[in-house]
Amino acid sequence: MNRIYRIMAAFLCLLTVCLAGCKSPDNTTSTPTQDGGSVSTVPSALSLFFNAKDSLNPYAVTSEHNYKLQTLLYDPLVKINPTFQPEFVIAESVELNGKTCTVVLKSVTFSDGSALTAHDVVYSIKLAKASTLSYAEQLKNVRTYTATDSRTVTITLDRHDPYFTNLLTFPILKAESEKRTDGNKIVLPPIGSGRYIFNRETATLTANPYHINGVSPIATINLIDAPDMEVLDFNLESDNVDIYNSDLRDGKMPSMNGSVSATTLNNLVFLGMNINSTWLQYPELRYALSYAVDRTQITTKAYHSYALPATGIFSPLWEDTKGVQNLPSTANLQNSIANLEDLGYNNKDSEGFLVNSKGKRLTLSLICNEENDRRVAAAILIKQQLEAVGIAVNVKLLTFNQYSRALSGGDFDLYIAEVSFFNNMDVSELVTSTGSVSYGIPGIKAEPTDSDKQPETPSDSDADTAAPEDIIESEETYINNKTLDDAVKAFYDGNASIVDIVNAFNADMPIVPLCYRSGITVLSNDLENSQISSVTDVYYGITNTKLK
Known about the structure:
Helices cover 24% and strands 23% of the residues. By secondary structure, the protein is of the alpha+beta class. Strand 4 and strand 5 (86-88) form a beta hairpin.
């Protein structure tokens, strides 16, 4: 999002207030009461942010506001609900048979009254795979896609994926409609089948009369142009917007009054470990770290309760793994100490830190990006929690560039990070030996460290640091990560279940899951909605918005 236009900010803010017309007391619809009167329950209009200079083409959008609005204009084949289950929208059925996915379409009409066909879906897949947005990565497993008939699309995959249905969330638009222009050769938004239609002249969204679920009771959505943070903050503080959503990636809470709810994200915050380093090669130490952390404390203190304690590698909200993930939400110091004792750490020095029989202290370095306040807070908590069981921790706060170089160079014992998973729950890039972001797991070929360019990069060697004696005596020690690697491979070969991955992960513990972070949705004071946002659509339940 651009952060400019300081000189024009005040003018734009005033113009927005004058034109938006979003808070009129007449913007309601009424339902009759038994005594013949009426009570207003549904607003006939709402106000949301958008960027007037950005496209509303879902495959060309660049601003965060317009990216979120595309879910109102273009329906997908499938939406993901708050428990990560697929809900069919345009798709009537999705059948997975090995590497073949067959999608049968409902009878759907575009907002211009024309029929949506398999040809339009194939055309949209092509745009999605060519997009510079995340859709291309999301559909990287798609090899071919064809329209078998007017209502059937056949997709072949490069590998078996039992949860590929969860990736059919890309927008469907009418073929070639992104090329439309008006009489002045201004490019028009593509035609979709979503709940709303964009009106360029009035800068509004109006209810789609052809929508498959019927016409929305909220007839109009006024769009407030917010090209930069100054205009956005002004409108938030002035209560000019009805619904605002943030994924809280910068840790900043919005300055908007109203009811607040957490928004489900598939974002795991975790403690990474350098298993190539001497002392972390043994799973007992990794188990000890996992038992020592208090996940509930991290979610409440570091993330202000906009997170859920991680019960395992997968989201605790995912129905498919509920009951099979069992990492403790609070610290289990007894189990942590037992694992440390198994490694020979049975004594403490005068300061209460664990030492081996040679009197060498167990000390680990923990690197963190200093530019993320929430992770810095989590790192400080983790230091305190590990020191409670006798593990000394040196927290090193680094700039993003220093942090990235340290990860690539393996210059760390521990690191704290966050990763966003696609909704097919593929964790292989993070936890397998060949994963692109599995830093510290044997098999990653790190770039050599250029010490001349990064004099502040931390080093793993500390004079008062020591591993268990049996590890010190062997310079050829090596962790076998095949259990988890093989479980993931077998899963995508169709020979294992998701439970097998959970069990293999728990046995290897290559990272320590901490929490699944949430976003935030704020509704203006006069509105209520029990479930407005979902995983793939921040306006998932917008049509259920009511007046208080």
